[in-house]
Model the fold of this input.
Amino acid sequence: MKLGRLNHVGVAVPDMQAAIAYYRDVMGATLITQPFDMPEQGVKVAFVNTPRQPGALGTDGGTQIELIEPLGETSPIAGFIAKNPAGGQHHLCYEVEDIEAAREWFTAQGKRILGPTRIGAHGTPIFFLHPKDMLGQLTEIMERSHEQH
Ligand SMILES: CC[C@H](C(=O)O)C(=O)SCCNC(=O)CCNC(=O)[C@H](O)C(C)(C)COP(=O)(O)OP(=O)(O)OC[C@H]1O[C@@H](n2cnc3c(N)ncnc32)[C@H](O)[C@@H]1OP(=O)(O)O
Ligand SMILES: [Co+2]
Done:
């Protein structure tokens, strides 16, 4: 498998609106999506587009900041926010051509895959790899969008 594009950096936040105001007012971001809920993933999500982005989700261009706020009692990031009340860098997401081939690759490497492959915030299949197997970094693998833009 070859290293793919860094699609986004996941940043866990305790307060989505405060985080959006920070990226807009402190960091000067101009392309921030409206937050949307992903109850099946236990998060509220918003994307901060870095420059050279056409502005549509998942399109080619720069890397996004993916703001994630816990949603619901069983959010997988509740523990992270409990340990890091101010929030912080949560995961990195890399793109692959074929999610199933990537699953086989990491499994063969003895890396723990967290749960089933499911549809992520960009509408393509994703899975997560345990941070303890990935240099301490929670790692998301995402099949890149094959739509032509
Ligand atoms: C899917 C929508 C969207 C997208 O891009 O499409 C997203 O990315 S949503 C992102 C939120 N969803 C997930 O993160 C799913 C995968 N994550 C998990 O299953 C859990 O968060 C897990 C298992 C990584 C950690 O769960 P939890 O914190 O409840 O467990 P522990 O406290 O026992 O943690 C075990 C061990 O790992 C360390 N840890 C936890 N989170 C992270 C992290 N983000 N980065 C690095 N290390 C992490 C934690 O400190 C523990 O270490 P220890 O030394 O044992 O204390
Ligand atoms: Co993500």
